[in-house]
Write a structure and sequence with these properties.
The complex is a heterodimer. By secondary structure, chain A is of the alpha+beta class. Chain A has 16 helices and twelve strands. In chain A, the strands form two sheets. Chain A has a six-stranded mixed β-barrel, surrounded by four helices. In chain A, a hairpin with a 5-residue loop joins β6 and β7. Chain B is α/β, with parallel strands linked by helices. Chain B starts with a strand and ends with a strand. Classes of the chains: A alpha+beta, B alpha/beta. The interface between A and B is medium-sized, with 30 and 35 residues.
Chain lengths: 421, 226
């Protein structure tokens, strides 16, 4: 009984201190406003930076998926490792059955396409250039790989059997124009040379430098004939749903069950540059955040300390009449936390307003590493990060009050009393 | 009357730059329970330092201090704070009220600080103290809205509300006009008579000295005359 009475009295005392802290914030509105401005600016900047990172991530992810990778690719075990030595040893031939099983047991597919990859020369206008050829199911791919933009002419899907769709940079090197003839010279499965005369129907731009500079697409059925193979070593697929990760476990199981020599690779495993690029962006933003937090903390401590110095006489009185050091520190810490919470909330609101107002149209970014086209970033409110940002800022800005609180709690009472006028 | 304070050979030396200055110089003094003692002396005689040492705000650099038969010369900061909180009431020359708190809350502060009363008790005791200094109409006013005399009355109520064993006052009427100063003196005397609180007051005010049961004169950090 006694114990709970003491606890109640302690709660009352803390409540009293909290009330005094709140009033102290209202006491010097100009100073409080400066502190709030410092905190809210820092928080708003962090929210905007985070929304930028989220926007970049989302756009970049979409670009990578729809430029060349799909959500997942199915190959035989060892294909990616040994493909250059034995390019035709990993053909998969039952595309239709596999597609049917995936759609039935995993989820609805937006596209499912076979891809034959081969290496050979493209010859035109007395020029020969080595490139990577892809035998694709053009109608399927066109539906999903929307980032493969027609730069000139038309898409492969609109061309006849003997059409070729060339990366725009490669076309430049070959001086190709739509309608030009070009010869693909390759080594077949049996090791003999084979050639195919094709008509260049158009050029494409994916934004991925490697593809734009050195690859070309022909119809899959023509690639089968050219290379004397059946099927394809890569099956690409994309789900209707953008949250492809939820299908991963089931997809792995169904594919392995269908044929134990098959494996599934998520696009992020294939496009390693995505994680590298995002890591690069996130690290930069992390450094910005640290700088912002340091500047904000220094501003807050300075402004806060100035206010406390003016109240030193008051702290002297409190100490003289029997207030313990920790109570003084707690009161100042309450002020700091109240201020940082309020500032952080204002900052989050301001950040959202900036995102929805000034940056509503997004910004165009220069091409990231390994990509050749600028891309447009839409700022996305980082809802998932807001609680963390809020907690971090309250902690940092609130923590900025620790040093002033500690200093004021340790003042010499006589000296402080001398400040009372 | 038994003694509430016993100071023996107390000295206090401050460093002003690199020069040591003796504010108290082997001072010996006893203060009895319930007495009204006035401390007088010229500026720089050590009055304020003695008040600070007696108020357990400052530790002496030499000698011993016994408070309620307990040697507190080298007591911890925490114990000294507890003793100030529970046993000593302060009245300052500049009133020293907390500006963001109302008159009533300034008085309540002293009780919340002790962390042993319920909210109702705190309020009732504080209100009674405010009434006893005649400020019930101004209970919700902030210090800035009160006159000097009213502020000093709030400070007295704050000092008295916890029923301290001693009240230490430093020139309590120095910032007040003579009429208000007389009211404050009456108040202090009445409270002293009713509560039998020990009062130790540093003053230049002749009226206070006339009212005191004992006058202690200090010069050069030593008791000069009683």
């Amino acid at each position: 009984m006694n114990k709970s009475y003491t606890v109640n009295a302690r709660i009352l005392w803390w409540r009293f201190l909290l009330m005094a802290s709140g009033r102290n914030l209202k006491r010097s509105l100009r100073r409080t406003a400066i502190s709030l401005l410092a905190i809210s600016s820092a928080v708003a900047a962090m929210v905007v930076f985070q929304s930028f990172v989220n926007g970049v991530k989302s756009t970049f992810r979409h670009n990578v998926i729809t430029s060349n990778y799909g959500h997942y690719q199915i190959t035989r075990h060892g294909f990616r490792k040994n493909e250059s030595d034995e390019p035709f040893a990993y053909q998969i031939t039952d595309a239709a059955k596999l597609r049917e099983r995936i759609e039935k047991e995993v989820g609805p597919l937006s596209f499912f396409a076979q891809r034959q990859i081969f290496y050979g020369l493209l010859n035109s206008n007395d020029r020969s250039v080595g490139g990577v050829g892809f035998g694709i199911e053009a109608d399927e791919e066109r539906r999903f790989l929307t980032l493969v933009q027609v730069e000139e002419g038309k898409h492969l899907a609109e061309g006849g059997d003997l059409s070729v769709f060339v990366g725009y940079k490669l076309a430049e090197r070959l001086r190709l124009k739509p309608g030009d003839n070009v010869t693909a010279l390759v080594t077949t499965k049996t090791g003999s040379m084979n050639a195919l005369d094709l008509e260049m129907v158009g050029t494409f731009k994916t934004g991925i430098t490697q593809l734009d500079e050195g690859s070309y697409f022909i119809h899959h059925r023509m690639a089968e004939q050219l290379l004397k193979v059946e099927g394809a070593p890569i099956f690409m697929l994309g789900f209707n749903d953008d949250d492809e990760l939820k299908y991963q476990k089931k997809l792995n199981k169904v594919v392995a069950d269908h044929d134990s020599t098959l494996e599934v690779a998520h696009w992020r495993q294939l496009a390693e540059f995505f994680d590298n690029t995002m890591g690069w962006v996130e690290n930069q933003v992390f450094v910005f955040r640290i700088i912002i937090l340091i500047i904000a903390t220094i501003s807050i401590v300075t402004v806060f300390m100035m206010g406390l110095m003016e109240r030193m006489g008051e702290f002297g009185t409190m100490r003289a009449i029997g207030t313990h050091r920790q109570s003084i520190a707690i009161m100042i810490f309450f002020e700091s936390i109240l201020q940082s919470t309020l500032g952080s909330l204002i900052g989050i609101g301001t950040g959202m307003l900036i995102i929805k107002g000034l940056l509503a149209k997004g910004i165009t970014m220069p091409p990231p590493p390994l990509m050749s086209v600028p891309f447009h970033v839409t700022f996305l409110i980082p809802w998932a990060n807001i609680p963390v940002t809020l907690a971090l800022c309250v902690l940092v800005a609130g923590g900025a009050g620790v040093l002033p609180a500690w200093r004021m709690a340790r003042i010499r009472i006589v000296e402080a009393l001398g400040r009372n006028v | 009357m038994s003694e509430i304070y016993q100071l023996a050979n107390v000295s206090k030396t401050y460093m002003v730059g690199k020069v040591p200055v003796d504010a108290l110089n082997g001072l010996t003094l006893s203060i009895r329970k319930g007495e009204f003692a006035a401390l007088q002396g010229p500026s720089g005689s050590g009055k304020s330092t003695l008040l600070n040492v007696v108020g357990l705000i400052e530790k002496p650099t030499g000698g011993t201090i016994r408070f309620r038969d307990q040697d507190v010369t080298n007591a911890s900061e925490g114990l000294l704070t507890d003793l100030r909180q529970e046993c000593i009431g302060f009245i300052f020359q500049s009133f020293n009220l907390i500006p963001v708190l109302s008159a009533l809350e300034n008085v309540e502060y002293a009780l919340y600080l002790e962390q042993k009363f319920s909210r109702q008790e705190v309020h009732a005791r504080a209100m009674k103290a405010i009434q006893s200094v005649g400020l019930e109409r101004f209970a919700m006013h902030r210090p800035a809205e009160l006159s000097g005399g009213q502020r000093q009355r709030v400070a007295i109520a704050r000092a008295l509300v916890k029923e301290p064993q001693i009240i230490i006052a430093d020139e309590p009427t120095a910032n007040l006009d003579s009429k208000t100063a007389a009211q404050i003196l009456d108040l202090m005397k009445r409270l002293k008579d009713e509560l039998h609180t020990t009062i130790f007051v540093a003053t230049h005010d002749k009226a206070i000295a006339d009212m005191a049961e004992r006058i202690i004169k200090i010069k050069d950090g030593k008791i000069d005359e009683e």
